[in-house]
Amino acid sequence: MIREIYSRQEVAQLQHCTLCPRKCGVNRFEGAKGYCGTDAGLNIASICIHRGEEPPISGLDGICNVFFSGCNLRCIYCQNYEISRPRSNSGNFTFSEAVSVITDIIRGGIKAIGFVSPSHMIPQMKALIRAVRETGLKPIIVYNTNSYDCPEVIEEIEGLIDVYLPDLKYVTPVIAKQYSDAADYSDVALKALRKMYYQKGSVLQKDEQGSAESGILIRHLVLPGHSEESKAVLKTIAEELSPGVNLSLMSQYYPVPDVRDHSILNRKLYKDEYESVVAVMKSLGFRNGWIQDLNSYLNYRPDFSRNHPFE
Questions:
Q1: The pLDDT of residue 237 is above 70
Q2: CB-hemisphere CA count at 13 Å for 307?
Q3: pLDDT in tens, 273-290
Q4: Is the distance from CB of 214 to CB of 141 less than 8 angstroms?
Q5: Average pLDDT over residues 224-236
């Protein structure tokens, strides 16, 4: 039954999966054997209205976020660890149920759908978008990604995605390997970001209410003990893309169970660490962006055992 929701191309992609830079080559119709730990099913952990994204992403009323399970990174500090690990919560949604929940939310007044951690779930994302649009609805589509994406996949989804919401986590291979098991993260992510930037440019187009309709907004989470890495990330964005790009500099880090014994990541971010990164952001000429209150970490602790993980 699940094959019926996919195009011929999408079936082929799942039969020999090279959707993300891991290039596992597994047949996902035969099980969850690849790095991400997901099969050819929907693998949706949660569908909910989320009001905690950046103001132009959440808008006035929130965004309908579709949280996929599994991930092509292994960030040891991941706040969504309950669903991002292999064989984690893969959800119980059938395709018709997922489409019904999404369309009900959109018909209730929410303007956008955010697909969270979609890099390994491109066929599933495309099938859901098709089904929603077949109902006559035309929501804004947000691609919320860790940026460990294949450039050719970003090219493939051009025209399908309205707003890119990518991370740039690191520029140092040793740190990327240690924290996310991806020494090539910076190289891969920059190639993907260049594709996104080429498609959208610096301007984040918004409607009259300030909700994003088209563009790119890059996120960076400042990690404790790594303010210099964050400054290097900002410098890279300014030089490789533009200081005119929209930027979200996040302070919401908190230590999840996996890093409570870590020598560096076992604490929250210090005020002087974050403020030093904000100062560099300003000195580099970034003019379109958001910063967070240092206590924002208190508000970003999802519980995916609930229907509404963030409420």
A1: yes
A2: 1
A3: 999 999 999 999 999 989
A4: no
A5: 98
Of the candidates 214, 250, 281, the one whose C-alpha atom is nearest the C-alpha of residue 56 is 214
156: three-class secondary structure by DSSP? helix
Query: Cα–Cα distance between 87 and 304 in angstroms, integer?
Result: 14
Residue position matching structure tokens 């230590």: 255
Per-position DSSP letters for 282-297, written without gaps between them: HHTT--SEEE--GGGG
CA dist 205 and 199 (Å) reads 13
CB burial of residue 280 (10 Å; 0-12, 13-18, 19+): buried
Q: Are 226 and 175 in contact (CB under 8 A)?
A: yes
Check if the beta carbon of residue 90 is closer than 8 Å to that of residue 38.
yes
Q: Read off the pLDDT of residues 22-70 as tens digits, 9 standing for 90 and up.
A: 999 999 999 989 999 999 999 999 999 999 899 999 998 999 999 999 9
Q: What is the pLDDT of residue 304?
A: 86
* Helices 95-107 + 122-134 axis angle, to 10: 60
What is the 3-state composition of the chain as percent helix, strand, coil, each rounded to the nearest 5? 35, 15, 45
